[in-house]
């Protein structure tokens, strides 16, 4: 996805408008619509050791605006493999069974259009209490997994807003004028499943919403800060106050027990340059 497409999606998902510039005229049009997106992992294979952000290379500021994020992974499972195989084979039968009643595209389109026009469900008192309870329970997951002074964030107010939208959508599906407890329960179930799949830190197995919101988990931030201080301390070991990146990396490997990569060291050097501690010359 190029930068222009990303900026357009940012505007649509944040402000529900899209700007069009043509023949020197710039206008802003309403874009109140739902967005369903799919993405393939880089190198055409999902790496379980990396986060969702690193696998699909989508900015966290854009990825975090989706209400539900599901991973569709090809995991060997006899039950699902058999079910999928039977479905594919059935497509090539000479005589296909017609005992299943199917809904036409036209009918489904009319139903959705009618629901959007006629249904404006209101949240009942019981449903409101369920929304608050569901959000608080998701928030409790973070503090319950505190380890080594780290505190992960398992849910934010953005997830609460998503719960409200999902509950209202489930009510509209039933042409209901009220959001009931059953709608909130189903929305909470969908949200928990999405968070468990997309917001799990591959290095710790813990749920951390920062993976989606910022692209970096709490543990990764802690490791980066430790590496930052180590590299900052090594700078005094260069008498000439100048050094090459490879020399710094070799010295870091010799004097530190941390297992780091060249990419991580480059990120630290970039931060040191932003903090005006060092000046990078050349490439």
TrEMBL record:
GO cellular component terms, A-Z: MCM complex; nucleus
Domain MCM C-terminal AAA(+) ATPase: 1-88
Cross-referenced Pfam families: MCM, MCM_lid, WHD_MCM4
Enzyme class per UniProt: hydrolase
Keywords (A to Z) from UniProt: ATP-binding, DNA replication, DNA-binding, Helicase, Hydrolase, Nucleotide-binding, Nucleus
E.C. designation(s): 3.6.4.12
Catalytic activity: ATP + H2O = ADP + phosphate + H(+)
GO molecular function annotations of the record: ATP binding; hydrolase activity; single-stranded DNA binding; single-stranded DNA helicase activity
Listed PROSITE patterns: MCM_2
GO biological process: DNA strand elongation involved in DNA replication; double-strand break repair via break-induced replication; mitotic DNA replication initiation
Similarity comment: Belongs to the MCM family.
Protein task: Acts as component of the MCM2-7 complex (MCM complex) which is the replicative helicase essential for 'once per cell cycle' DNA replication initiation and elongation in eukaryotic cells. The active ATPase sites in the MCM2-7 ring are formed through the interaction surfaces of two neighboring subunits such that a critical structure of a conserved arginine finger motif is provided in trans relative to the ATP-binding site of the Walker A box of the adjacent subunit. The six ATPase active sites, however, are likely to contribute differentially to the complex helicase activity.
Subunit structure: Component of the MCM2-7 complex.
Protein name: DNA replication licensing factor MCM4
Protein source organism: Arcella intermedia
Upper lineage: Eukaryota, Amoebozoa, Tubulinea, Elardia, Arcellinida
């Amino acid at each position: 996805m190029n930068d222009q497409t990303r900026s357009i999606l940012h505007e649509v998902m944040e402000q529900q408008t899209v700007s069009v510039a043509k023949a020197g005229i710039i206008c802003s049009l309403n874009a109140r619509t739902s967005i369903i997106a799919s993405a393939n992992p880089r190198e055409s294979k999902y790496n379980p050791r990396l986060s969702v952000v690193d696998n699909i290379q989508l900015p966290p500021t854009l990825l975090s605006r989706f209400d539900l994020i599901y991973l569709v992974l090809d995991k060997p499972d006899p039950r699902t493999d058999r079910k999928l195989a039977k479905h594919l084979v059935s497509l090539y039968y000479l005589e296909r069974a017609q005992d299943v009643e199917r809904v036409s595209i036209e009918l489904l389109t009319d139903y959705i259009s009618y629901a959007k026009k006629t249904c404006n469900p209101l949240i009942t008192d019981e449903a409101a209490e369920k929304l608050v309870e569901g959000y608080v329970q998701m928030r409790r997951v973070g503090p319950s997994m505190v380890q080594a002074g780290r505190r992960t964030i398992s849910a934010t107010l953005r997830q609460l807003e998503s719960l409200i939208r999902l509950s209202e959508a489930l009510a509209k599906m039933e042409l209901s004028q009220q959001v009931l407890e059953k709608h909130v329960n189903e929305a909470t179930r969908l949200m928990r499943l999405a968070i468990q799949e997309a917001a799990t830190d591959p290095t710790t197995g813990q749920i951390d919403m920062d993976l989606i919101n910022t692209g970096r988990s709490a543990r990764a931030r802690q490791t980066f800060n430790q590496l930052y201080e180590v590299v900052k301390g090594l700078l005094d070991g260069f008498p000439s106050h100048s050094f090459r990146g490879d020399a710094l990396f070799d010295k870091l490997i010799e004097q530190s027990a941390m297992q780091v990569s060249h990419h991580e060291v480059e990120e630290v050097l970039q931060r040191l340059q932003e903090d005006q501690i060092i000046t990078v010359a050349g490439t």
